[in-house]
Every structure is written in structure tokens, then in C-alpha cells.
Design a protein that fits this description.
Layout (H helix, E strand, L loop, with lengths): L6 H16 L17 H14 L3 E4 L8 H9 L3 E5 L5 H6 L6 E4 L1 H15 L5 E6 L5 H16 L3 E7 L4 H14 L3 E6 L2 H14 L6 E3 L5 H9 L4 E4 L2 H16 L7 E3 L2 E4 H4 L2
Parallel strand pairs: 1-2, 2-3, 3-9, 4-5, 4-6, 6-7
Antiparallel strand pairs: 8-10
Length: about 280
């Protein structure tokens, strides 16, 4: 997985451990996560270790959609089943290497569009919005930005700034502060994950604008649920991290038994203050 400092991936870990506890007779489980979500070399090294240990299957949420393809292909060349979850590996790189790695995960563009459409219901045409993007080398980050942009264009909103905070709260705070200061008429900040949404909320508190600017997130972590209930975050998107882990493990086990690898789209749900209590 990516960084276990991100609650989304600790939830994914919990889902995997629960599944294993109920199916210990089927497989042994090893879980690894990076210290820093942008440390691609560390994740490559983890996969290399798994290859050396002769594991039967690797279920990976890649930090980089392009850079992890090579080491995943090396694993497959050693007879290891490789399954891609959460962040999709790059189709062009896969095609260039003539390798097929199935993806089990959500349609991130669809999920981001759900959140941005809900935001648009609270705004008027011409209102100014900004985007805090995920890592530019991550497919899911790109797809979420595109989903936000789809809704922004359709509803006639004005996108005044779009910058990456590389998924991190600490990065998001100064970038969001700059957006707030540079655009006094800003009405919303759409964040490609909840960690960055927390940074945007912190920046709004510092600027005294928590009542003036909406914040949209993505992941539905527990810290954001509290802020949703308090009205400090407008909405987020639940892609069910625990279930993604289970889907990935089960699909990998099927592939070990010889089933044909296929992509599986997993659900995404809009989460608002109203849906928290339902």
C-alpha cells in the first residue's frame, strides 16, 4: 500500500486483516506500507523483497502509476500473480511493455464528479472554485481532478486555481492559504483526498473564512466525518477502502487458481452531513 500515515490505507489494512482472520486456512498475509506516500523507490524496494521471498501474489496500490509497472512485470515474469488496486497503473505503459495487470478499484472520475455536482447545488454559475490535486503521477489523482473539472464546466463555475499538494495535509495548508489570499471571492476548494481537505480547513480557520468557503474531500476518513457533522466540510466520497482490500485479495486468490484476470469496478458513494446519520 501507500503511506500508512494516511487513515485511508490503515482502513484498507484493517479490511485485509479481518478478511485474513476469517480465511486463515486459504493464505498467509503480509502487509507493507510506505512511510512517505511519494517515496516511490521505497515501494519498488518492497516489491523486490516480495519477489525475492517467492510470494504467490502481490496486491498493490501503487504510489506512481508509471514507475511501478516495471517491478510488477518482473514479479509476473517470476510467476507471481499481480493485482492492482486503488490507483490504476498507466494503460500506455502497460501496453508498451505488453503486460496485462487487472485493476480492482473505483471509477475516481465518477466519484469526484459526484462530489463536485453536489457542491454546484450550493453555488451559482460564475462562482470561483479551486482544486487541490493529488500527485500528478498518480492515475487516481488525475482522474479526480478531471471529475471535478467536468462538473465545474457543466455548471458554469470558474476554476481560478488548481495546484498539487501531493496528497499531504501539511502541503495543503500553505497552498490553500495562497488560494484564499489570491482570490478573495473564492467560494470552494475541491480536494482530491481528505488529508488535503483537512489542510484546507486549517487554512480557512486561520483566515477566518470557514463560513465563506466550502471544502470538498475524497475518502471519508473519520476525521472528516466529524468535520462533516460540524459543517466545516461540505461532502466527501467513500470508496470503501476496507472492501477494496477484500476485493483485491479475493480476486488474487481466484487468479492463483487459474481464473482469467479481469478488471472490477468497485462502488463509490457521496457522503454529506445528511447521509452520515442514515
Amino acid at each position: 500500500m501507500k503511506s500508512l500515515a494516511n487513515e485511508f490505507f490503515t482502513t484498507m489494512e484493517e479490511g485485509a486483516r479481518e478478511h485474513h482472520a476469517n480465511h486463515e486456512e486459504l493464505y498467509r498475509l503480509r502487509i507493507d506500507g510506505m512511510r512517505d506516500e511519494t517515496d516511490v523507490a521505497e515501494q519498488v524496494g518492497m516489491v523486490e523483497q516480495m519477489i525475492a521471498q517467492g510470494v504467490d501474489a502481490i496486491v498493490i496500490a501503487p504510489a506512481d502509476s508509471q514507475a511501478l509497472v516495471g517491478v510488477c512485470q518482473r514479479a509476473m515474469n517470476r510467476g507471481i500473480v499481480v493485482l492492482n488496486i486503488d490507483n490504476k497503473l498507466d494503460d500506455d505503459v502497460l501496453a508498451d511493455r505488453d503486460v496485462r495487470i487487472p485493476f480492482v478499484g473505483p471509477d475516481n472520475r465518477k466519484g469526484a464528479r459526484l462530489a463536485a455536482d453536489y457542491l454546484a447545488e450550493q453555488l451559482e454559475s460564475g462562482d470561483q472554485v479551486a482544486i487541490l490535486e493529488g500527485a500528478p503521477n498518480a492515475y487516481n489523482g488525475v482522474q479526480r481532478r478531471l471529475g471535478f473539472e467536468d462538473a465545474i464546466e457543466e455548471h458554469g463555475l470558474e476554476l481560478v486555481s488548481s495546484q498539487t499538494a501531493y496528497w499531504e495535509t501539511d502541503n495543503a495548508v500553505p497552498i490553500a492559504s495562497g488560494m484564499i489570499n489570491s482570490h478573495p471571492d473564492l467560494r470552494a476548494i475541491l480536494c482530491a483526498n481528505d488529508s488535503m481537505a483537512l489542510g484546507a480547513v486549517a487554512a480557512l480557520r486561520e483566515a477566518g473564512k470557514t463560513d465563506d468557503i466550502h471544502v470538498v474531500g475524497f475518502d471519508n476518513i473519520s476525521a472528516v466525518q466529524r468535520l462533516l457533522a460540524e459543517g466545516q466540510i461540505l461532502c466527501t466520497v467513500d470508496q470503501h477502502a476496507d472492501k477494496i482490500a477484500v476485493y483485491g485479495i479475493e480476486h488474487a486468490l481466484d487468479m492463483i487458481e487459474g481464473e482469467t484476470p479481469e478488471d472490477v469496478e468497485t462502488p463509490v458513494d457521496l457522503i454529506t452531513r445528511d447521509t452520515l446519520s442514515t
